Amino acid sequence: MRLTKQQFLYLVHRYVVECFAREEPPRVHELAERLGISERTLRRRAQEYCGVPAGVLLRALRRKHARSRMRRTNLTTTSIAYRAGYGSRRTLFRAFRRETGLSPRQHDREKRG
Questions:
Q1: Phi/psi of residue 85, each to 5°?
Q2: What is the pLDDT of residues 69-85, one digit of tens each?
Q3: Which CATH number fits domain 5-112: 3.40.640.10, 1.10.10.60, 1.10.357.140, 3.20.20.60?
Q4: Contact call for residues 68 and 84 (beta carbons, < 8 A)
């Protein structure tokens, strides 16, 4: 059975949230397994429905989760890094800078204008 875009996005989001609860990074092969599809099919669906490869989609959701926690909680960045599956504060900042060119704080300042 082929998932609709809405079903696909819901299941991807649910999987990512579960990864955060386990403090583990989301993985393409695990998500494909969870959805009962091949990694290749997952990659095609992510590209078709979201316009980006599956790995890029998972990293974006992970970064969005971390940013949200930074803004909405009093948790330390180290705690947020672990909860988002980064393993350390340094890894979170490095990944954030690699993907956006900015530190999390700089990115938030620019977003707020």
A1: 85, 15
A2: 888 888 888 888 888 88
A3: 1.10.10.60
A4: no
